[in-house]
Write a structure and sequence with these properties.
- The complex is a heterotrimer.
- Chain A has 13 helices and 4 strands.
- Chain A is mainly alpha-helical.
- In chain A, strands 1-4 form a two-stranded antiparallel sheet. Chain A has a two-stranded antiparallel ribbon with strand order 2-3.
- The longest helix of chain A is centred in the last third of the chain and has 28 residues.
- Chain A starts with 12 loop residues before the first helix and ends in a 5-residue tail after the last helix.
- In chain C, the strands form 2 sheets. Chain C has a 6-stranded mixed sheet with strand order 6-7-8-3-9-10, with helices on both faces. A 4-stranded antiparallel sheet of chain C has the order 2-1-4-5, covered by helices on one side.
- In chain C, strand 7, helix 7 and strand 8 form a beta-alpha-beta unit.
- Classes of the chains: A mainly alpha, B mainly alpha, C alpha/beta.
- The interface between A and C is medium-sized, with 32 and 38 residues.
Chain lengths: 363, 297, 262
């Protein structure tokens, strides 16, 4: 009743190819953007939303969403399964750190871009095997990437500026003389970067480059016959994906944690991002955000829930149990989603919209 | 030169243990086409359960068989709840489901038994075998030898099981073609139950062996990750391949760490097998013994 | 069939093509030619090597022996990318559509070689990339109109009925504006009505656009009706080559494949 397209006519191909062809979607999205850019700071100013909300929820949500976008491009759109996501994030983080450190007056955004490009270069090198290897063999090969890069960053002192503990402190984010010190300002910075990159990603997947990735994913022999070049397409996917993960890694270090070490970009993080892709929906831009939100929020809700249990029914749980339960919950959710809706939350969202179009009719 | 042999043999011995873990993967993959990423978690869970019960007072002679029962039950539950609903899905979906399973089992193990490292004493000491030390002046750990021996026996038994027995034949039939196997009367679900139970048993043995060597701790799950390069080298569907692959990986890993490691600061073991496997894949994408994938267009 | 069409010179010719996989000889000493603007059928029993022959034409398989003369140039084998660029497009026996994409997107992939945009312009979208997308969309919509699949243009291909999928695959091949179209059993699994539609499309393409068509097909009625010339394969060898009438009367062909009406 409310969500109908009746009366919305598209009189040009341009109108038909919009990101949000339905007017209600456009309004909804504009509202979310307004909320994110204006509403949240306003709520913070009024004291409704605490700093904790930013540092613990919104900022990591955005950063992980960016990394998930990267992995989604590689695994969801181009079909190349990768378990090395965290390694590319590490390259981005440490490269940006070194550019800022060693070049005076390096603008922060340029450092991030260069960091992303370094990650892209590494991505291309480690993506070369994908030309010969596929499926889980490729996944196993990406493990080589993950372990080797982290080892490299740890062993070669130059990357960590010979810090004895291996930990680096990321520099402050400064632009045009303004220092992004508060968590609110960092949130807005991250929000801007992620918004722009998400838009670029959405544009890529709906044009030729995106179609080339999906063609290689779905049927690479036929794709080759049509004239897509597998090598170029796959390496492109690795490059773009690694760029996104690299920038996410840089944001992770600069705008979230502040201090990082190579070990912090371990296999566990790679798996976490893969879970975000699976649960959010492989091959979906929206899904990347949904998946990230889900994985970031679940431990928080779980903690709240367990604390609630402890206080109300006096359930006495050993201290480390919440992380174990978290693992169990994640694991079972992955399995649940794969059984019930392998295309993740994004598909559920789509199905929901379909139902909304028909509401109040059942079909 | 002697030192080289010591390192080589130590590597080969740990390689036999890698083969054991890899076999767990091969079994399940052969019979159901599922790459069970959770094998590592199963190793961890099995070892932890056996040791946990032992620490609570049960003798090992009791806790180990009990754990076996638990593993069989776990295998049946996994088959029923995770695999059956996903039977028609592409391999990659099943693989990701086993990743989810990994996290679940790891969480379960830690929730029940806690995350502390536990020591496991199987009665064999990690000291050089005196006979060899005296006669050949080589220090080879008694424990390594015993573990390798046990693993070798198990590997041989499994290889024979697959090729000589009726159940083994049925397993191979199922691995080849589910529909065809069904049509000749092979009970698919029983077979899968059997396979997962055997994999559980393999996981238990591997867990006990590795656990007594390095302590039963979370890092045990990474041992199973090491089985991946073994599988890449040996092929995912080959029992002899898992053996040969394991030996190669075990030996090369140790040799690289000892002889190349000092030049680059050490710690090579963490990635060397993977890079080796990667290079190998570039030359032979199906592994040493794997089946060549033919795609028809 | 219709002698108004001007059949041109030989555009593609094969001499002594032999192809084997390990010990299996798929093609032995095959030689025939294809003339511009004609409809050339390849027929024969299952396993005769027809699909292999098509795969040789567009570079998926590389023959061990023999020579291919394409537009006057002699070559040992074809290359998939080059043959796509030179205007050869094809459909497949087992539909090779991109199941994750819609009908529209699938056909758009066929425009790939004609698109000049790079990924950076694609990422920015507004500007050159959007203009190019719309320009190619127009062409694709013409094909959609031609194949009468407007109502399913946004449907994911995996959800379509078999006959419609085959039509979409034809659309994707047509999107490349090929000069030579290779069709591998385009009417397999269709009912009479669908076959008539498919025939109509193929004839229209040949008639209006002058596209040369090399066609593998089992339905003899269709083959005899629409082809200009037929080549017959059996166990990887050529056993007949000529007009439909000649081939129909050939005793070897009758023995191997057609049989006799009782």
């Amino acid at each position: 009743m409310f969500y109908r397209e009746a009366g919305q006519f598209k009189s040009s191909y341009a109108e038909d190819s919009r990101i949000f062809p339905i007017r209600q979607d456009r309004y909804g999205f504009a509202f979310i953007i307004a909320l994110a850019f204006l509403g949240v700071p306003l709520l913070a100013y009024l004291g409704v939303v605490s700093n904790y909300t930013f540092t613990a929820i919104l900022t990591p949500f955005l950063i992980f969403a960016l990394a998930t976008l990267g992995l989604n491009i590689l695994t969801g759109y181009a079909g190349q399964l990768s378990l090395g996501t965290a390694a590319f994030m590490a390259v981005g983080a440490f490269a940006s750190y070194n550019f800022m450190l060693r070049i005076d007056g390096m603008p922060i955004l340029l450092a991030f871009t260069l960091g992303g490009l370094c990650a892209a270069a590494v991505g291309i090198v480690f993506g070369l095997p994908s030309l010969r290897i596929r499926g889980f063999y490729l996944a196993a090969a990406t493990l080589a990437t993950q372990f080797f890069i982290v080892w490299c960053l740890t062993k070669v002192g130059w990357f960590t500026n010979y810090s004895s503990s291996g930990v680096i402190s990321a520099q402050k984010i400064q632009m045009f003389g303004y220092t992004f010190n508060s968590s609110m300002s960092k949130y807005l910075f991250v929000l801007s970067v992620v918004s722009v990159m998400a838009l670029l990603a959405k544009n890529m997947v709906r044009t030729n480059i995106g179609r080339s990735w999906m063609a290689i994913r779905d049927m690479d022999m036929a794709a080759e016959v049509i004239g897509f070049r597998p090598m170029r397409t796959k390496l492109m996917a690795f490059a773009v994906s690694s760029f996104y993960c690299g920038v996410a890694g840089a944001l992770f270090a600069f705008a979230y944690l502040g201090t990082v070490e190579p070990e912090g970009f371990n296999l566990d993080l790679s798996f976490r991002i893969l879970f975000m892709v699976i649960i959010g929906g492989a091959g979906s831009i929206l899904g990347s955000f949904l998946g990230s939100a889900f994985i970031v929020l679940t431990p928080i809700f779980l903690n709240i829930f367990l604390q609630f249990l402890e206080t109300t029914i006096h359930l006495d749980l050993p201290s480390g149990i919440s992380s174990s339960i978290e693992l169990m919950v994640f694991g079972s959710l992955i399995i649940f989603f794969l059984i019930v809706e392998p295309h993740g939350l994004a598909r559920l969202w789509q199905i929901g919209k379909e139902k909304m179009r028909l509401w109040p009719f059942p079909h | 030169m002697q030192f080289f042999f010591e390192v080589l043999i130590a590597g080969l011995l740990s390689g036999v243990m890698y083969s054991l873990v890899a076999l767990g993967f091969v079994l399940i993959y052969k019979a159901s086409g599922v790459f069970n990423f959770a094998q590592g978690a199963m190793v961890y869970f099995a070892a932890l359960t056996a040791v946990g019960m032992h620490d609570m007072g049960l003798s090992l002679w009791l806790s180990v068989p009990l754990t076996m029962v638990v593993m069989v039950a776990l295998g049946l539950v996994i088959e029923k709840i995770v695999l059956r609903p996903l039977v028609a899905q592409p391999e990659i979906t099943l693989f990701m489901a086993t990743i989810g399973l990994t996290f679940f089992i790891e969480g379960l193990a830690q929730a029940i038994w806690g995350a502390n490292v536990r020591a496991l004493n199987l009665g064999i000491e990690d000291v050089p075998l005196e006979w060899l030390l005296e006669n050949a002046n080589m220090a080879i750990s008694q424990f390594d030898l015993a573990a390798a021996g046990i693993a070798a026996v198990l590997v041989a038994a499994l290889a024979l099981f697959f090729s000589r027995t009726k159940v083994g034949r049925a397993l191979r039939a199922v691995a080849d073609d589910h529909q065809a196997a069904l049509s000749v009367g092979i009970p698919l679900q029983h077979i899968w139950g059997i396979v997962w139970s055997v994999a559980g048993f393999v996981a238990l043995v591997a867990g006990l062996l590795w656990g007594s060597r390095n302590g039963v701790q979370f890092a045990l799950t990474f041992v199973a990750l090491k089985a991946l390069p073994v599988l890449i080298l040996g092929g995912f569907t080959s029992v002899p391949g898992a053996i040969v692959g394991g030996l190669i990986i075990g030996a090369s890993e140790k040799l690289a760490e000892v002889f190349l490691g000092p030049y680059v600061g050490g710690g090579i073991e963490g990635w060397f097998p993977y890079v080796l496997a990667l290079l190998f894949l570039l030359v032979r994408p199906e592994g040493l013994f794997g089946e060549k994938i033919i795609r028809r267009i | 069939m219709d002698s108004e069409r001007k059949i041109g010179d030989v555009v593609l010719s094969f001499e002594n093509i032999s192809l084997s996989f390990g010990g299996v000889k798929a093609l032995t000493n095959i030689g025939f030619d294809v003339r511009e603007h004609e409809i050339r059928a390849i027929i024969g029993p299952n396993g005769a090597g027809k699909s292999s022959m098509l795969n040789v034409i567009n570079g998926v398989y590389h023959p061990q022996e023999g020579e291919i003369i394409f537009r006057g140039k002699h070559r040992r084998d074809m290359n998939t990318y080059e043959s796509a660029k030179s205007g050869i497009a094809r459909t497949f026996q087992n539909i090779a559509l991109f199941k994750g994409m819609s009908v529209l997107d699938n056909i758009m992939t066929g425009r790939n070689l004609k698109m000049k945009s790079n990924f950076l312009l694609d990422a920015i979208y507004w500007g050159p990339a959007q203009r190019e997308e719309i320009e190619h969309r127009k062409k694709v919509e013409e094909i959609i109109d031609f194949l009468e699949i407007q109502h399913i243009r946004k449907t994911p291909v995996g959800r379509l009925a078999y006959g419609l999928q085959k039509r979409v695959e034809l659309g994707r091949a047509l999107a490349a504006e090929p000069s030579i179209l290779l069709l591998d059993e385009p009417m397999a699994g269709m009912n009479v009505e669908e076959k008539q539609d498919m025939c109509r499309f193929i004839l229209d393409v040949n008639d209006q656009l002058g596209t040369t068509i090399v066609l593998i097909e089992h339905d003899m009625g269709v083959v005899m009706d629409i082809s200009d010339r037929v080549v017959v394969l059996d166990y990887g060898k050529k056993i007949a080559d000529g007009t439909p009438d000649e081939v129909r009367a050939n005793q070897d062909v009758i023995d191997a494949y057609l049989g006799v009406a009782h």
